[in-house]
Amino acid sequence: MALLLQGMYDSNALFSNGLHATSSTFTVGNSLAGKVMVTNTPQVLFSLIYLFYNSLFTGMLSTAEINSLAYCRKPLRVSHPQGAQRSTYYLQLPYRYAIPLMVLSGLLHWLISQTVFLVNIAVFDTNSVKQPDRAVSACGWSASGLYTVLIAGLIMVAVLVGFGSRKYHPGMPLTTSCSRAISAACHPAPGDDDAPLKALMYGVIHQTEDGHEYVGFSSHEVKPLKGGRSYGRNLST
Questions:
Q1: Which residues partner with 204 through β-bridges?
Q2: What are φ and ψ of residue 62, in 5° steps?
Q3: Under 8 Å CB-to-CB from 120, ≥6 apart: which residues?
């Protein structure tokens, strides 16, 4: 915050010299390795944040993919497709999401590199002789770069909140990545043993003589779930 306030002294000239214009410098000991570590620490922190950010999108989109089977018949995505099955996404996310996220990650890493960086100043005398004892090595930072990173970070948060506010279609209990819940929906009805190789849909797949209904994935016709009713999710129990 102190760095941010210090960079506000001339708001008119904040972006006039570009993102990499040095607003101030600070030193961290006399070790060059220490300065390099300090200037690259924000890169490591952003990488960790991006992993968490990406995992949230992966969880929401995988849930949306499973949830879509309640109203649209689709084949499964597997590593080694057979029959009507489809292959998994190369980047674990649909390309319309994965590519923008990768571009955003690269852009933020570049912006951070323009915000905190290593400054080395070599000093020469009037005869163009280098003066090693007068050289300056420090960590520099850019106020305009810092503002740009903060704005980009706020946009990332707004996109995540907006995407997370979208509602899933009704018709299927949320399973997210819970293997137990997914497994409970994967017990086929009698006569549908090759269902994994075909296009599937989620709904009521079997009804017993006493009227009890079971739900799950099936390649046959299914009936949609109705609110307020109880269903079984495992035909073996």
A1: 215, 223
A2: -70, -35
A3: 135, 136, 137
